[in-house]
Amino acid sequence: MRIEENRERILYGPIGRTLLWLGLPLMVVQLVNVSYNIVDTYWLSRYSEIAYAVPRQVMSTFMLWNSIAQGLMAANLALITQLIGARRYDEARKYVSFFVSATLLINSVASIIYFILRPMVFSYIVKTPPLLYNDTLTYSGIITLDIVFSAFTLTYSTILQSIGDTRTPALINFGAASMNMVLDPIFILGVGIDGSMLIPPMGVAGAAYATILSRFIGLLLLYDRLNKKYPYLKPRLTLKIEWEWLAKNLRIGAPVSLMMASNSLAFMFQNGLINQFGEYVAAAAAIGLIMMDLADATLWGFTSSVAVMVGQALGAGLIGRARKVAFKSMLYIGVSTLIGSSIVYMLKEAFISVFTDNQVILSEADRFITVFLPSIVFFALFFIGMSVGRGSGHTMVPTIMGIIRLWGIRILLGYILAFTIGLGSLGVWIAMSLSNVVAGLLMIIWVARGGWAIPVIKTREPATV
Q1: 66: which DSSP letter?
Q2: Which PANTHER family does this UniProt record tie to the protein (predicted)?
Q3: How far apart are CA 38 and CA 32, in angstroms?
Q4: What is the mean pLDDT of residues 225-254?
Q5: Where in 313-382 does DSSP place strands (E)?
Q6: d(CA 343, CA 357)
């Protein structure tokens, strides 16, 4: 059986090679996603001098409404990987159905609430600059549908990754992101022949439509491949969800949802700090954050592999294996992120100039990248620790660290440095960098102590199919 083959490779294969086997497809997808963000920003920069800052205004608010889905994903990644590691496939199939059913119900309601409340959010929390406000409302109104589509994409990707199949979601997400890149210039700038417009230019609305359409196509493909490739785990919608599953999801997923909601609010307030310095600083931050996405693109794919390997090892009772995965992952991914950051630093000036020739934006983006980039390697270590927590099901300590990282250092210290001490936007950039350094160092200590190396499923004689 394919599930059994993946399990054996994850549990007994060489750690470095298995990390590559699981993580490379996801890394490629992340690079494509980052490339999509670059293309999105590029075409919006051709449409307007500042319109490319709009998606970044919306991104943090989007995280808040997807926080419950993130908690469900973290909890079920731990549960399903550990059940598969223990060869309890019948329970894994049942949990898959509960997972999909809960995602549909929760995110459908969340999308309606988001659509209604978004004007207040952008007016009073994010404090979007006046010149960006109308475009931000337009973009966020269309992208509301993605609260459902992206949650289901994460759900089906998580199920496949729990099995050890990272290639299927990687290939499909690669195709969806590529489709998005093709649609972007068509929808943003329009298409005309002989002076007549076949597709009118839609600006930020076009960017949103391209995202929604490509995500929906990718979701249909994920649904089809899971049902055909792993029919044994085919989910069935149900409202008869067991209390035991709900209790486990609350215990494991609630801290992650809390952290994601807290992160989202913190990012909104961070945007509020940045936006107080005007549209040009907001635009510079948008460019700089894309550079950061490139630097840590290697990180995101491999962190999912760490969670899968840790979860299956703990489910199989291989505690020593789980510890080795955690330690070696920190070493491998930390070094690779350092290399990626160094390459990005060397290319920063050429990259920034692709999006703007405004000297104020150029100077501010360069300063942001110079201050923030050295902290990326510590963010990588922090994120590996988060993955260890998610794979093991012990998410509370990483959640507390994440809240301190954003609220205690990034927001509070950022406000003090920017406004009390008077460093301006530089104070915000310094606080952002320090938040990553402190969180990364704390996470190394937590992983080394090893209190997370305990399964969250009941251990009993495993069953086979």
Answers
A1: T
A2: MULTIDRUG RESISTANCE PROTEIN NORM-RELATED, MULTIDRUG RESISTANCE PROTEIN YPNP-RELATED
A3: 10
A4: 85
A5: none
A6: 23
pLDDT tens digit sequence for 186-208 = 999 888 776 677 888 898 999 99
Half-sphere exposure of 127 (CA within 13 A, CB side): 14
List Cα–Cα distances, 103 to 140, 169, 284, in angstroms: 21, 18, 36
List C-alpha distances in Å: 48 to 37, 132, 323. Answer: 16, 11, 50
| Separation CA 231–CA 113 (nearest Å) | 35
Mean pLDDT of 268-288: 86
Residue 168 half-sphere exposure toward CB, CA atoms < 13 A: 24
Give the C-alpha separation, 117 to 430, whole Å: 32
C-alpha span between 298 and 333 (Å, rounded): 8
CA dist 452 and 54 (Å) reads: 40
Question: Is 50 exceeded by the pLDDT of residue 464?
Answer: no
- Nearest C-alpha neighbor of 166 from the set 103, 222, 233, 83: 222
Any idea of the CA torsion for 390, 61, 157, 152, to the nearest 10 degrees? 120
120-129, 180-189, 291-300, 420-429: least confident range? 291-300
Q: Can you tell me which residue has the tokens 């927001």?
A: 411
Q: What angle do CA 177, 329, 75 make, to 5 degrees?
A: 65
Specify whether the CB–CB gap between 232 and 89 falls below 8 A.
Answer: yes
Q: Which residues contact 377 (CB under 8 A, 6 or more apart)?
A: 334, 337, 338, 341, 440
**196 φ/ψ angles, rounded to the nearest 5 degrees:** -110, 140
Residue pointed to by tokens 């550079």: 291
Q: Which is it for the CA torsion 24, 343, 181, 150, positive or negative? A: positive
C-alpha 297/C-alpha 362 separation (Å) is 23
- Which residues, in sequence order, are bridge partners of residue 193? 196
Question: Other C-beta atoms within 10 Å of 371: how many?
Answer: 18
Measure the CA–CA gap between 325 and 16, rounded to whole angstroms: 9
320: exposed, middle or buried (C-beta count within 10 Å: 0-12, 13-18, 19+)? exposed
Q: Is residue 101 classed exposed, middle or buried when 0-12, 13-18 and 19+ CB atoms within 10 A define those classes? A: middle
SS3 87: coil
Q: Where are the alpha helices (DSSP H) in 404-424?
A: 412-415
304 within 8 A of 254, measured Cβ to Cβ: no
SS3 at position 221: helix
* Both tokens assigned to 378: 């510590």
278 by DSSP, 3-state: which? coil
Locus of tokens 């789980």: 322
Write the pLDDT tens digit of every residue in 26-49: 777 777 777 777 788 888 888 888
> Phi/psi at 277 (nearest 5 deg)?
-95, 5
